Amino acid sequence: MLTKEDLECLDRKGISEDTFNEQLQRFQEGFPYMKVERAAVVGDGISVIEDDEKSAYLDGWKSYLAQSHDVVKFVPASGAASRMFKSLYAFLDSEGELTDSEKTFFDRISDFAFYSELNAKCKRNEGREISRLLDLDKQKTIVENLLTKKGLNYGFLPKGLLLFHNYQEAPRTPFEEHMVEGALYAKDSKGKIKLHFTVSNEHLPYFKSIFDSKNNFYAYRFGADYDVSFSVQKPSTDTIAVDMNNNPFRSNGELLFRPGGHGALIENLNSIDADIIFIKNIDNVTLDAYKQATIEYKSILAGLLIKVQKKIFEFQAYLDSDDISDDQIQKMLNFCETTLFVSNRFNPMDTRENKIAYLKMILNRPLRVCGMVKNEGEPGGGPFLCQNPNGTVSAQILESSQFDLSDETQKEILNSSTHFNPVDLVCAVKNYRGEKYDLTKFIDGNTGFISYKSKDGKELKALELPGLWNGAMSDWNTLFVEVPIDTFTPVKVVNDLLRPVHQG
């Protein structure tokens, strides 16, 4: 039974009773596994751009930017950096010897871009430099100055605000690196660069402060006019937590809601009115010296997107006319199967009218090109060809949790995957008339999952919404393209910053 206070809580968040009850039902019923037909591999679902094709795509994207199109770089940046420092938090609570990762951290501490600022904090707070604190075996004191409020407070800040890279002029945050990237592949003919960051409310002032202090520097350097905007995850996308018996979880008598995961950001993405949107995670950045591969392939993916979109627009215009031949219909069906990898083997189309209706359904959807990296053991969703509720088979990005691993055939398909998605997407979100799609209409609500967490020492279940590039984009047209591993340089743990791509 919902109390008056519960109903008021729902109202404040913008969550209806129906949505609340649907979420509770999800915990009872769970989520169905995907019906995966096969892994997408090179030659079957994944394209490789040959050297002699690159220049055409690069020129196509350059030409597109020279025209009056709105291009936005969309960066999810709300995640806290606390997981990045998991080993250091464990170190603070430990009494034993240093682990190998902790030894590496302290041995190479001067190589981190935040070293100078951390050293200054240590001198102010402890009266000693880092080198002297190390001599005195005061490693925990150093970590406290790194992670806590008395020092740099890195345990509170999101990754986007941490100093990642050293440069001669000044160290840079990932936020700044995305400003640089935007200038190198998303600047329009008027010099405008549009960037959008999803952040948390508590961190928004920090991001704005960095932008205000750095805007003039980067604008002058790249001859650019930066248009940077921010949004926060909507409270209406929070999900109810439940106890182990699937009853609403309460903390101090109040319903406990949790953020619905990055799938909630489809609402933020949907609010952006642009022709082309690049999507890339905040921590997937590198030094200028290593940016060339990223710049080249972002432009290639965008050039391919433009080429395929042009063909789709041509077909959509045909479909809306009264004069369309059977040959044209067949050409479109072939295009859907061989270029978009959408087939309709489970729902045969027996009439011309049915074929036209099917083509209108398939072609009238947002389009995305997804960079795929050869799997070298890094975690991440992979490319697969899956059966959908509407009777089609299409390209999807799936996580391992979406597979029924008790089914040996499905397990083999998962294990046969050769690539993963490093969150490298270029999206087109308008139809041929220039009307923006409502992206919330293309979500597969059956692709969320349930995770296990704790609160106040008690176990709970949390509901994760369909992932942004997974189920939230389930009904998009999708192209998979192989991109080099050089374009994937994430920072998941602090010692990743010691890799050559972050050190130079």
Word description of this protein:
The chain is an alpha/beta fold and 504 residues long. It has two domains: 4-79 and 162-487, Spore Coat Polysaccharide Biosynthesis Protein SpsA, Chain A, CATH 3.90.550; 86-157, no CATH class. It is built from 16 helices and 19 strands. The chain has helices at 4-13, 17-29, 51-65, 86-93, 100-107, 115-126, 130-135, 139-147, 174-185, 204-222, 266-270, 292-319, 326-338, 352-363, 408-415, 500-503, and strands spanning 35-39, 41-42, 45-47, 71-76, 192-199, 225-232, 239-240, 250-251, 254-255, 257-258, 276-280, 367-374, 382-387, 393-398, 419-420, 424-428, 449-455, 458-464, 477-482. Strands 2, 3, 4, 5, 6, 11, 12, 15, 16 and 19 form a ten-stranded mixed sheet that branches. A three-stranded antiparallel sheet has the order 1-13-14, with helices on one face. Strands 7-10 form a two-stranded antiparallel sheet. Helix 10 links the parallel strand 5 (192-199) and strand 6 (225-232). Helix 4 crosses helix 8 (139-147). The longest helix has 28 residues, at 292-319.
Task: Provide the fold topology.
Blueprint: H1 4-13, H2 17-29, E1 35-39, E2 41-42, E3 45-47, H3 51-65, E4 71-76, H4 86-93, H5 100-107, H6 115-126, H7 130-135, H8 139-147, H9 174-185, E5 192-199, H10 204-222, E6 225-232, E7 239-240, E8 250-251, E9 254-255, E10 257-258, H11 266-270, E11 276-280, H12 292-319, H13 326-338, H14 352-363, E12 367-374, E13 382-387, E14 393-398, H15 408-415, E15 419-420, E16 424-428, E17 449-455, E18 458-464, E19 477-482, H16 500-503
Parallel strand pairs: 2-3, 3-19, 4-5, 4-11, 5-6, 12-19
Antiparallel strand pairs: 1-13, 7-10, 8-9, 11-16, 12-15, 12-16, 13-14, 17-18
Helix pairs in contact: 3-12, 4-8, 6-8, 9-10, 12-14, 13-14
